[in-house]
Amino acid sequence: MGSLDANPAAAYAAFAADVEPFRPLDADDVRSYLHKAVDFVYDYYKSVESLPVLPGVEPGYLLRLLQSAPPSSSAPFDIAMKELREAVVPGMTHWASPNFFAFFPATNSAAAIAGELIASAMNTVGFTWQAAPAATELEVLALDWLAQLLGLPASFMNRTVAGGRGTGGGVILGTTSEAMLVTLVAARDAALRRSGSNGVAGITRLTVYAADQTHSTFFKACRLAGFDPANIRSIPTGAETDYGLDPARLLEAMQADADAGLVPTYVCATVGTTSSNAVDPVGAVADVAARFAAWVHVDAAYAGSACICPEFRHHLDGVERVDSISMSPHKWLMTCLDCTCLYVRDTHRLTGSLETNPEYLKNHASDSGEVTDLKDMQVGVGRRFRGLKLWMVMRTYGAGKLQEHIRSDVAMAKTFEDLVRGDDRFEVVVPRNFALVCFRIRPRKSGAAIAAGEAEAEKANRELMERLNKTGKAYVAHTVVGGRFVLRFAVGSSLQEERHVRSAWELIKKTTTEIVADAGEDK
Amino acid sequence: MGSLDANPAAAYAAFAADVEPFRPLDADDVRSYLHKAVDFVYDYYKSVESLPVLPGVEPGYLLRLLQSAPPSSSAPFDIAMKELREAVVPGMTHWASPNFFAFFPATNSAAAIAGELIASAMNTVGFTWQAAPAATELEVLALDWLAQLLGLPASFMNRTVAGGRGTGGGVILGTTSEAMLVTLVAARDAALRRSGSNGVAGITRLTVYAADQTHSTFFKACRLAGFDPANIRSIPTGAETDYGLDPARLLEAMQADADAGLVPTYVCATVGTTSSNAVDPVGAVADVAARFAAWVHVDAAYAGSACICPEFRHHLDGVERVDSISMSPHKWLMTCLDCTCLYVRDTHRLTGSLETNPEYLKNHASDSGEVTDLKDMQVGVGRRFRGLKLWMVMRTYGAGKLQEHIRSDVAMAKTFEDLVRGDDRFEVVVPRNFALVCFRIRPRKSGAAIAAGEAEAEKANRELMERLNKTGKAYVAHTVVGGRFVLRFAVGSSLQEERHVRSAWELIKKTTTEIVADAGEDK
């Protein structure tokens, strides 16, 4: 509608004095706007199943629909809501759709959304305890509750079993990447100190390690923290460990570096990789790293949530010997974005690198040492009251419902896996550990297979993914595991029921049949 | 109530099959929970004025009120709401209170809260364009709107005036610290390349600069990015520049480093420091930095919002010559936490350091180069739909109301300043640039002053702050400027009206009189 060569100066509207002064937080307005928003949310959840999961919009579509210059005068809130419904919603990828099977689901719940709403209305900035005592303490409490659900040792909790402060503790951050970054920095500084570095000069000798299946954000976090790209070791994995980190290979790499005069500094182990849900053996990794006094971080962003069920808890065995662990309730514990819980065994190692103490934040409570100032465990200073939604989720649903939710997702994934295994055109490529099924149209080995060789199989699977996603009735993503192009079917979107999984499978079968038919016609 | 030595295993409740399966996002439940939350918010805004701004709670108070073990079974949402009202609210520091004058206000509005609610319900994760096209495009649009309100040159916008993609662009981040960190990393990598560093070896030669009034988070961000603490230059400021950065001193420091074979890499200029709202001269700083090809970042976290008014825009003069600028609508543009807008003149310099390209995120749109994948301009991968609330604020209130809001706050601050100047027991310590007044009980020079000398003045002002804050009727913070202990009176909490400012002044006068009387009795 508008265009950017419109004179921006037009936005400098002269201030026309209204009769009423402007009250942006007038309680009646707030209630009225929020009721409209709640109506939208209600309608959205009622209808999202019928919306195309992946919209068929072209780059720039929205910029063509909405005005390119900011309005100079105010408009009823209904205008924004109308443009939201008519212009924004049609271009959304609907992560809340029960037909969303891509990436990992962003699970959510009524309690979490309500908690987030209240937090955004209170709008506290809890950088220090004094700046928001209840926000800090509720966050600490929620983290300790979650630590108990996960069966983490008391050494990671903010309160010891005796009720006093221990050396461990947690903090809620925005992303796993931030958890990696702050622990990398703490480990880096410790390694510089113990290797007798003059300032940061010794950073060129520090080495870090992770399996090649580790999330790319780890390698990015290493670069952010200043590690030398040449010293970031990506340890190869293979089918023999189901793409989990092989402790023997890790030991070999760390020993070779140590022998070469380098300083092994940090190992990242993943419980439930993003690519295929591989699990690195936490205890064995910790044992190897201990020989070099390297920091071990466990990234359990997705699968950590499953560990609230006793039958999955073994994936964390050995966690008492690592230095830090992070997991994201915004992935699989029904807590809307963003909520990544980082636990460290010795908070002083973290705060030693992250503490700031500007004059205007000084106060008696901080000076007393009796309180936690959460700004000293994160990148920034400002922080939202994210503990509220996490606490509300646990308070309202309890361990029982949360476990039920995990088990229901896993059961649906198992159902999908069985369906795949029952059709010999397909294969499950790696063992299913949680609620992610990695499968593909198999290369021709028997008469039933439709794609000859790996190249053909990749082509057929790409075609399948693209056709599926174009229907708007399902959204699946892909990965490459052991050189094979694989479809990822991630179960768990919070509105999902078994019927959605079964419908998706029917669509996959039908689309595959069409691909076979089209391939036949092409010949 | 509970205690942490309760057996955590109790949390592993056996899964008792309910009649109804668990539906965490049932639309009727969502609506019901949200209506309760809206009622809470309405009551909160109606009553927050009467709540103590700063609660009188002791460390650990909440942990004594709430159970220390997570519940094993579910509970009605009303239970969480009851504990919120009875245990959490009494321990909150009420940033939304009109009697809050500490730090900077966290301004907010009905449109922003509604936008945040909808974003948390849609719960998209817009790491790539494809993962949420509308979320990416609305964020880009909102940033371009704001750039126009700020009078930023087109080189910082995502769209050029001709409608195509330029080299500039923006991204919404969580905090200013993150904006500093990612630009520091981009500048670091560029400096390493141009200085011919072998890997990161040359990092020991890179130097960074900021005025001594710069937010402490800048110095922390430098350390996070691996800069040598010995190479982080804090340039002294004084009353002669109203505590703004002196370009001559900057030049001297940069030249000395360059002469010593070091590589000046990055300068942070602040428009509106946290301590006293000092303003570094943006254009002059840019001119100095240009001699050394150093990156210039402008931190306008708070005062950037004021620059939407033509009468304040001169504080950004010269911005067309800097490399990046960040400002936080969550501070003064009525957008709830968190929302920091980072603009860079050449996005490729940022994405060159921050890009990742894992297999499972590859897609045609990204490959085409026609879209922005915002994950490549931030620390993490996951990201909330923060553009929605920012867009809703501008769409609903328009430039006119936003300017009115800024001007109203500044006018109230001016009123307070005049009241202070009218009482010769007090002095305004530095010129008021925006809506922050730095004042103090003045040391005795005339008969009217109550504190003899600087030490006495500090004692009296500390006493004043503590007594004020203990009343619960006002919350002010302090700083130290030029060695003087000063009270910060920040106007602008969104529910604030002139009567609150006048009441706070009455309280300040009354409390000061009491302090004088008590001091007299002590003698």
TrEMBL record, chains A, B:
Positions where N6-(pyridoxal phosphate)lysine occurs in the chain: 331
GO cellular component terms attached to this protein's record: cytoplasm
Transmembrane segments: none
A GO term, aspect molecular function: carboxy-lyase activity
GO biological process: amino acid metabolic process; carboxylic acid metabolic process; phenol-containing compound biosynthetic process; primary amino compound biosynthetic process
Keywords: Decarboxylase, Lyase, Pyridoxal phosphate
UniProt cross-references to InterPro entries, sorted A to Z: Aromatic_deC, PyrdxlP-dep_de-COase, PyrdxlP-dep_Trfase, PyrdxlP-dep_Trfase_major, PyrdxlP-dep_Trfase_small, Pyridoxal-P_BS
Signal peptide: none
Co-factor requirement: pyridoxal 5'-phosphate
Pfam families, A to Z: Pyridoxal_deC
Family: Belongs to the group II decarboxylase family.
Name of the protein this chain belongs to: Aromatic-L-amino-acid decarboxylase
Upper classification of the organism: Eukaryota, Viridiplantae, Streptophyta, Embryophyta, Tracheophyta
